[in-house]
């Protein structure tokens, strides 16, 4: 194991064991290096790596701290990774969405509040038939994010935020090249929401599967 990797593993162990918790300050560099049996250079490289993935926060002149470790913060690194993927890998992200979002819709059907239903209903009626592709994409993103929020699961929200960036361009391609994209998207959103509102989890799952599969099928044909 490379020395930097060893340092990362040891710092991670301090966090997972509870020795260091969210917001805690790490010991001084020299003390921590000696305690872990590592060189200060290896420790510095490990701290840099853990800072990049939002596990540690280096505050110059103050010290190095463990971040809040909340899912949204940690999964920012996923957003960065997704942005680096090429367009030809976007189908893989659609496969992930097709695996994930039907279950999210089913869970939302059991947990959604009346206020959240109202907000989503407004979204489905907030788009004109002649809306631009950009407006369609923005509305679609807000709708799917709203369903994720209705689950009350922040990890789910963060994961979907992470993979939505990769699929956004495909949505735009679909809107540009397919007639009736607005009407079709709104009809599918309405069907998903109808199922969620009456707390029919399996119908919500089925409609969401069909919704995502439709975009994925089009993209496979267009590739």
TrEMBL record:
One of its GO terms (molecular function) is DNA-binding transcription factor activity. Residues 1-69 form the HTH gntR-type domain. It comes from the Bacteria. Keywords: DNA-binding, Transcription, Transcription regulation. It holds the Pfam family GntR. InterPro entries: GntR_C, TF_FadR/GntR_C, Tscrpt_reg_HTH_GntR, WH-like_DNA-bd_sf, WH_DNA-bd_sf. PROSITE patterns: HTH_GNTR. SUPFAM superfamilies: GntR ligand-binding domain-like, Winged helix' DNA-binding domain. PANTHER family: TRANSCRIPTIONAL REGULATOR, GNTR FAMILY, UXU OPERON TRANSCRIPTIONAL REGULATOR. This is FadR family transcriptional regulator.
